[in-house]
Amino acid sequence: MVDAESHIRRGHPIIFGLLCFFAIIEGIITAWLVSRYNSHDNYPSNSARDRLRFLVFTSWWTVVFTAVYIGAFLADTLSFITSIASHGAWLIITWIFWLAGAASLTAAYGGGQNCSSSDLIYCNQNMAAIAFAWIEWIIMTVALVSVILIGSAALRRGDRLSSGLV
């Protein structure tokens, strides 16, 4: 089990660091879009407005919680925050947020736009927001599957899910 523990010790900060990094990028892009559209009152549609605002929330939600999880994990505190159950619950909720945000923004723009022939204002930034939302969802899926596998192994060993990841 030492091998699995070393993989978790190395992998956790990497995967959560990637989640935080790409959530910051998505948060900056979507916050900029919302700011520009708000100042000029020229959203392409109400659905695009609502979906961009939801992605702003989801991005910063992810940044805050990944920073907390990285800090607790690196501090090696045996608390509820570092438990398998806590990671699983947060990842499931956040996975749903990213799936809903990425899919709904993609749908709002008809699956995407060819910006060279589109009249969508801030087209490249909107397409970047879609791309980074899907990237974040993919990384979130990897993290969620990893925690499910770790949790399954813990249950097979007879450990509790309220115990730490390692």
Automatic annotation (TrEMBL):
Places the protein is found: Membrane
Stretches that traverse the bilayer: 12-34, 54-75, 87-109, 129-155
Domain annotation MARVEL: ranges: 15-144
Entry-linked Pfam families: MARVEL (PF01284)
Principal localisation: membrane
Keyword field: Membrane, Transmembrane, Transmembrane helix
Membrane-topology descriptor: Multi-pass membrane protein
KW Nucleotide-binding (keyword) present: no
GO CC annotation: membrane
Protein name: MARVEL domain-containing protein
Organism from which the protein derives: Papiliotrema laurentii
Lineage: Eukaryota, Fungi, Dikarya, Basidiomycota, Agaricomycotina
